[in-house]
Amino acid sequence: MKRTAQKIRKINCPYCGIQLAYKGAQRIQLGRWGLLLEHWDNWLSGSLNVQLYECPKCGKIEMFRTR
Ligand SMILES: [Zn+2]
């Protein structure tokens, strides 16, 4: 079973130096991200649960896979 309780990380944007805003847990359909993820071929097919962080200034997105 997957648990959604994850601690929120404090991450700074590498471009702006300000803290990324936590956007919550998201489920990504791998099909939509195929071009981005094609080299991660050891990943399971289907969807992927991630935590998204976004820079409010430049829109840089950082994501972490949740298990
Ligand atoms: Zn930024």
How would you describe the overall organization of this protein?
A hairpin with a 6-residue loop joins strand 2 (47-54) and strand 3 (61-65). The model has no long low-confidence stretch (mean pLDDT 79). The protein has one helix at residues 34-37, and strands at residues 21-29, 47-54, 61-65. The relative contact order is 0.33. It is mostly beta strands. It has a domain at 21-65. Bound molecules: zinc ion. Residues 13, 15-16, 55, 57-58, 60 line the site of zinc ion.
Question: What is this structure's SSE topology?
Answer:
Blueprint: E1 21-29, H1 34-37, E2 47-54, E3 61-65
Residues 13, 15-16, 55, 57-58, 60 line the site of zinc ion.
What's the short story on this structure?
The protein is mainly beta and 67 residues long.
Give descriptors for this structure.
single chain, 67 residues, mainly beta, 3-stranded antiparallel beta sheet, 1 helix, 3 strands, elongated, binds zinc ion
